[in-house]
Design brief:
The chain has about 180 residues and is mostly beta strands. It is about 5% helix and about 60% strand. The protein contains one helix and eleven strands. It starts with 8 loop residues before the first strand and ends in a 21-residue tail after the last helix. The relative contact order is 0.11.
Length: about 180
């Protein structure tokens, strides 16, 4: 975590090789628990605040903060890295975009990933997402948006440079176009 994180409590039970069998994190009334071994943990989250978590993203691999309250269940393997589960993220914020909620089923194994779910942008509407691909490889994605308003598009325009895009053109007025 690169960003300041709220105080919390961590409890862990380790095996004789000092590998975690159970890890429980609690902060601001939320919990995140992992039970198992490095080759297969079961995770459960209930309203766990992600404040303080940062992810490397974009061509420059800079860290950007992720926020929201995570709930859900799934599995996590560290040897090799693989995970899957059902997530429900309330008040998500990442790369300049905020929302009301994200509900999704996610999976990653052997460099292949998939996500299927629904995003509720900050002001209005929904976006259904169905995407799959390979890490640093091709992606197949389908989006269906309903009843979006201009707030989301303004957020996207303001966040474009954080995503690695070129800066948006300077704005002007209709009179700047002259007589067409």
């Amino acid at each position: 975590a690169l960003a300041p994180a709220p105080p919390g409590r961590i409890e862990a039970r380790l095996d004789r090789r000092w590998l975690p069998q159970r890890v429980a994190l609690q902060r601001q009334g939320g919990t995140l628990e992992l039970v198992g071994r490095p080759d297969g943990y079961r995770w459960t989250a209930r309203g766990f605040p992600l404040q303080g978590l940062a992810l490397a993203f974009g061509r420059d691999r800079r860290f950007h903060t992720l926020q929201g309250d995570l709930s859900g269940t799934g599995t996590l393997s560290l040897q090799p890295l693989a995970f899957n589960g059902r997530v429900d993220l309330l008040r998500p914020q990442f790369l300049g975009l905020g929302g009301r909620r994200v509900e999704a089923t996610v999976a990653y194994a052997g460099r292949d990933y998939s996500i299927k779910g629904r995003v509720e942008p900050l002001a209005a509407g929904t976006i259904d997402v169905n995407a799959s691909g390979r890490w640093q490889g091709p992606i197949r994605a389908e989006f269906k948006a309903r009843q979006l308003n201009s707030v989301l598009f303004r957020q996207m325009a303001e966040a474009w440079s954080r995503w690695g895009g070129t800066p948006p053109p300077s704005s002007g007025q209709a009179a700047d176009l002259g007589a067409l």
